[in-house]
Backbone:
């Protein structure tokens, strides 16, 4: 089955700097890669996703890149703000199956 | 729209007791999921239901059973709770077929003594 690894497990950045979180997956059949943000005590919420027919996707300060050959994908947050502090989860899944497998999460702290 | 709702919010059980966690969604989604979240381990899929009448095992199904009662409701049952099942449980739903966004419920915090 699918296995998703995520690095780093914790990340501290100064406000205004960029943050990068990297994930790898094992199943070459996976073709859907969402990213979720979970604030302390809250539920996970989707922030961006990418499908295998696209190499990069951007939404304001957030971008995701996908390298299907190497089986890794990354989340990039630019101009970080204190409200970006949260745990971020990557996930991978197949469209033919109705489930995704999550990575272990990255705790991001943005220092004012 | 309430989205995805879960009951109860918090529960304390003794080892060996049973309980059912309830989940309901009002978004007419076909797919529903149960996850558990433990520190440092992310969200692990317990069971999922791709459509009404079907259920499938996820990564960590042992010790749990599920029922997809109808399109709206998906319950998770612990027949004989163990301390290792202490966790936060999240239910989620999604429109199936195109891997749409999963919408999560607020979670149930379960403590097994």
Residues:
């Amino acid at each position: 089955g699918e296995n998703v690894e995520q690095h780093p497990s914790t990340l501290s950045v100064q406000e205004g700097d960029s943050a990068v979180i990297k994930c790898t997956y094992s199943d070459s059949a996976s073709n859907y890669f969402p990213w979720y943000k979970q604030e302390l005590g809250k539920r996970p919420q989707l922030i961006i996703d990418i499908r295998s027919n696209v190499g990069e996707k951007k939404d304001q300060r957030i971008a995701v890149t996908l390298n299907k050959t190497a089986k890794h994908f990354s989340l990039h947050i630019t101009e970080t703000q204190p409200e970006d502090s949260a745990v971020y989860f990557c996930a991978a899944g197949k469209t033919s199956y109705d489930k995704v497998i999550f990575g272990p999460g990255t705790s991001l702290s943005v220092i004012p | 729209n309430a989205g995805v709702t879960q009951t109860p919010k918090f529960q304390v059980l003794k080892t060996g007791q049973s309980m059912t966690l309830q989940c309901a969604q009002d978004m007419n989604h076909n797919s529903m999921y149960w996850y558990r979240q433990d520190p440092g381990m992310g969200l692990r899929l317990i069971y999922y239901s791709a459509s009404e009448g079907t259920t499938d095992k996820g990564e960590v199904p042992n010790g749990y059973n599920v029922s997809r009662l109808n399109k709206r409701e998906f319950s998770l049952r612990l027949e004989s709770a163990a301390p290792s099942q202490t966790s936060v449980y999240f239910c989620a739903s999604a429109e199936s077929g195109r891997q749409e966004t999963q919408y999560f419920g607020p979670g149930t915090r379960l403590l097994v003594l």
User: Anything to note?
Assistant: The two ends of chain A are 41 Å apart (CA to CA). The mean pLDDT of chain A is 93. Chain A touches chain B at residues 1, 6, 9, 32, 34, 43-46, 49, 51, 89, 93, 95, 97-105 (CB under 8 Å). DSSP finds no helices and eleven strands in chain A.
